[in-house]
Design a protein that fits this description.
heterodimer, A: alpha/beta, Double Stranded RNA Binding Domain, Arc Repressor Mutant, subunit A, 4-stranded mixed beta sheet, two-stranded parallel sheet, 7 helices, 6 strands, B: mainly alpha
Chain lengths: 191, 171
């Protein structure tokens, strides 16, 4: 039993309006399962796949942005629309502000930022090539860790980073999802 | 009097651990429905939702300043009670608008408003309400402090709430 949704909506919206929410989250149904999207003042801070425990995920955000976390589909309408447009193929740019504060090192942040800015829909890049782009050509493995711990998958497109040896390689949401996302974007995977 | 401390001989009721507050909405999802029932019981069915919204916003304002993550459910009950009682008090004032204004306007202080509201009740009822909503104790602890059974403690608190509600309702 929870409260009627009109009341939950009213409370969450009032909280956001009065600047009392450290972050807002919403659950969005997509072809790759229900995503949990968490947004702070600066932008989307966390995207979770449906098998990730929600409590732990929100606690992780709370530890960084603060515990005043509320749920509201209504307050995140714009974000939901952008993510839905991606999956529906209407507009695949995922043009959303992103908050990288859950990324734990400057190196990882640089790798993810370059990935987001430079590797667009339909393109792929190898871990090694991305490492070279950020000026650390020998750091392919570290780029792999940056991708593996990416707190904002899909929006920061770590699914577009592939092993130099061929195949799709690993993915936080599982290789099958990575394959699905790449197919959706029309990207060609070698091997 | 507020800010009174817990007696030292009741560790079970006063345990304080490191502050790791759960995401606020998890509290709303776990306790929202029972808090709504509580708000309705004090402020009346028609006002329950408004009171609860108001109470949860108050709670949200105070949430990051909490010094411990214990008894969060009891804390939400207390905030809801105070908010509901404030609501009754405002309504009572509206009924009395024809009478001359009180000499001193009561400052909007959280705990003062609680004390003012319970001021007309018998001392036994007042202390039961304080233990429940100011000190956040559960009924076992309240019973221990009052020297009664748990059932009697629960009864004393609910009777006191009922009395307040009747007082707040225009005849």
């Amino acid at each position: 039993m929870t409260l009627p949704s009109h009341l939950l909506d009213a409370i969450a919206s009032a909280a956001v309006r009065e600047g009392l929410a450290d972050a807002v989250y919403t659950r969005l149904r997509t072809p790759i399962g229900t995503l949990l999207i968490v947004q702070g003042e600066e932008g989307v801070v966390r995207v979770g796949f449906e098998e990730e425990p929600e409590d732990a995920l929100l606690a992780q955000v709370a530890a960084r942005l603060g515990p005043r976390i509320v749920a509201s589909d209504r307050e995140l309408t714009a974000t939901r629309d952008v993510v839905s447009a991606y999956f529906e193929g209407e507009d695949e740019t995922l043009d959303l502000p992103v908050d990288m504060s859950l990324v734990r090192s400057d190196f990882r942040r640089a790798a993810l930022k370059t990935l987001r800015d430079e590797v667009h829909v339909g393109e792929v890049v190898t871990y090694g090539a991305l490492a070279t782009r950020i000026g650390h050509p020998k750091a392919a493995r570290a780029v792999g860790s940056a991708c593996a711990t990416n707190p904002v998958p899909i929006i920061v497109p770590c699914h577009r980073v592939l092993p130099g040896s061929g195949g799709v390689g690993s993915y936080g949401g599982g290789p099958e999802r990575k394959r699905q996302l790449l197919a959706h974007e029309g990207a060609t995977v070698q091997g | 009097m507020h800010g009174r401390s817990h007696p030292r001989d009741l560790p079970r009721c006063t345990d304080v651990s490191a502050v790791v507050l759960p995401p606020f909405w998890s509290l709303v999802e776990s306790h929202g429905d029972e808090l709504l029932v509580h708000a309705r019981r004090i402020a009346g069915d028609a006002n329950g939702e408004d009171v609860l919204q108001d109470a949860l916003l108050r709670a949200l304002r105070a949430y990051p300043r909490l010094r411990h993550a214990e008894h969060l459910r009891a804390w939400l009950y207390r905030v809801t009670t105070t908010t509901a009682l404030d609501h009754l008090r405002r309504r009572r004032r509206e009924v009395l608008t024809d009478s001359p204004p009180e000499q001193v306007t009561q400052p909007e202080h959280y705990d003062d408003s609680f004390e003012v509201l319970i001021g007309d009740l018998p001392e036994t009822a007042q202390s039961a309400l304080r233990l429940r909503f100011v000190e956040d104790l559960d009924y076992d602890c309240i019973a221990h402090r009052l020297g009664t059974s748990t059932v009697a403690a629960r009864q004393r608190v609910s009777t006191a709430i009922r009395t307040l509600r009747t007082q707040g309702t225009p005849a």
